[in-house]
Design goal:
Number of helices: 14
CATH topology of one domain: Aspartate Aminotransferase, domain 2
Distance between the termini: 42 Å
CATH superfamily of one domain: Type I PLP-dependent aspartate aminotransferase-like (Major domain)
EC number: 2.6.1.76
Oligomer: single chain
Strand content: 15-25%
Cofactor: pyridoxal 5'-phosphate
Largest sheet: 7 strands, mixed
Number of strands: 17
CATH architecture of one domain: 3-Layer(aba) Sandwich
GO molecular function, one term: pyridoxal phosphate binding
Family: Belongs to the class-III pyridoxal-phosphate-dependent aminotransferase family.
CATH class of one domain: Alpha Beta
Protein name: Diaminobutyrate--2-oxoglutarate transaminase
Helix content: 25-40%
Length: 462
């Protein structure tokens, strides 16, 4: 598939009016619309066309939702088939042929050891609702109230999910250190940093004076997404499995963004061989439509009817689109494709570091890629006798995002200081498109580094 060059900007009163009315009518809490002032009207695969006639390569993909890109033919066919059949679209949690087909396909993709002894709960349509369901489940099964989560985590916007993500609520969450190679919380990095993080967590849980509420579950992202694309080291994740199993704590894998081939394995826990007790799934499992579930060991199925419900947990169109997506990814080995193409993109991005000192780190897994931007001229924080990474540069990252958009490339920012440029292209990305994405990002970075507005765009460094 040929890469579409960005079309010239055209004057569009309708486009400008829509954006103006959005700013007038929608809340101050809107997010993507602030940094991406476009009005999508058509889309296919990697490409979005705006109302102003411009075309963009979409490496946001609905925050990782669009495993097959926009309007993939197998997804559209599955949706049309349900609509044309006259089947009910709203069924609460009743059994339907569409639901049965989705569940069967989903279980076929799960690790066999897990799927053979699993139950599924359909939740409200958002991933955060599935996170809440997972918390309710493990509390009911264990009789405990505490939860374990990690620094830098993001699990949603509801009360429990916010607490696990670092928000202030009355939910009893103990935060444990998440190992990072580039910004190791213990200043050593590598296997040693992960080792210390695991030892710290184990010691905290076994210290009767640590003040840790008895934990029902530990929730972890195999790759932290919003936290800055930080892959969990495989040995460390295996250690978390041992620590939780030894103490009767349910291990909850949040695969909302990492699932369905995104990281180069169908489910990201497969990289480490870890079998969790609960998997939280959303985003790509709905084939671009809202759907969220938890899948868990049958021994945990001790909650009462109605313990967790949701009016829109029977989304038939999403289940049909999701089943088609899961099958297409599985049959076409798109997870393996994401692993190979992701490695090539990471290698090319690593090469850019030679000419761009503003690139502090390039990391990721599969087609979940992050480029952390730094200010190499600023003095690193910390002791002078201990080498540390340069401080993050959110101003540069914001400019890179703007320059990308002007070149017809949509990217998102993440990380603790919004200094990580994130790439989440669809798994159907071609070699030619992957090259175009990196080329446009490199060009945008060069332009941003030369910009006189670099120091004033996003405020001071953190």
């Amino acid at each position: 598939m040929a890469v579409t060059e960005p079309a010239p900007v055209t004057t569009s009163p309708a486009h400008e009016g829509i954006l103006r009315r959005q700013a007038q009518r929608e809340s101050a809490a809107r997010t993507y619309a602030r940094s991406l002032p476009i009005v999508p009207v058509r889309a296919r695969g990697l490409t979005i066309e705006g109302a102003d006639g411009r075309r963009y390569l979409d490496c946001l993909s609905g925050a990782g939702t669009l495993a097959l890109g926009h309007n993939h033919p197998v997804v559209l066919e599955a949706i049309r088939k349900v609509i044309d059949s006259g089947a009910p679209l709203h069924v609460l949690d009743l059994a339907t042929p569409v639901k049965d087909a989705f569940t069967t396909e989903l279980f076929a993709t799960l690790p066999r050891e897990f799927a053979d002894n699993a139950r599924i709960q359909f939740c409200g349509p958002a991933g955060t609702d599935a996170v809440e369901a997972a918390f309710t489940l493990v509390r009911a099964a264990t009789g405990r109230t505490g939860l374990l989560a990690f620094t830098g985590a993001y699990h949603g916007m509801t009360a429990g999910a916010l607490a696990a993500s670092g928000g202030a609520t009355d939910v009893q969450v103990t935060r444990l250190p998440f190992p990072q190679e580039y910004r190791c919380p213990f200043g050593v990095g590598g296997e040693r940093g992960a080792e210390i993080a695991a030892h710290w967590s184990e010691h905290l849980l076994d210290d009767p004076k640590a003040g840790v509420p008895a934990p029902a579950g530990m929730i972890v992202e195999p790759v932290q997404g919003e936290g800055g694309v930080n892959p969990a080291p495989d040995n460390w994740l295996r250690r978390m499995r041992e620590i939780t199993a030894e103490r009767g704590i349910a291990l909850i894998a949040d695969e909302v963004q990492t699932g369905v081939g995104r990281t180069g394995a169908f489910w990201a826990v497969e990289h480490s061989g870890v079998v969790p007790d609960v998997m939280v799934l959303s985003k790509a499992i709905g084939g671009s439509l809202p759907l969220a579930v938890i899948v868990y060991r049958s021994e945990l199925d001790l909650w009462q009817p109605g313990a967790h419900a949701g009016t829109f947990r029977g989304n038939q169109l999403a289940m049909a689109a999701g089943a088609a997506t899961l099958k297409y990814v599985r049959e076409n080995r798109l997870a393996e494709r994401a692993a190979a193409l992701g490695d090539r993109m990471l290698a090319r991005l690593q090469e850019l570091r030679r000419d761009h000192p503003g690139i502090g780190d390039v990391r990721g897994r599969g087609l979940m890629i992050g480029v952390e931007l730094v200010d190499p001229e600023a003095a690193p924080a910390g002791r002078s006798d201990r080498p540390t990474a340069p401080p993050p540069d959110p101003a540069l990252a914001a400019l890179v995002q703007q320059e990308c958009l002007s070149r017809g490339l949509i990217v998102e920012l993440g990380g603790r200081h919004s200094a990580v440029v994130r790439l989440l292209p669809p798994l159907t990305l071609t070699d030619e498109q992957a090259t175009a994405v990196v080329d446009r990002l490199a060009d945008a970075l060069s332009a941003a580094e030369r910009s006189p507005h670099r120091r004033t765009t996003a405020g001071p460094h953190h």
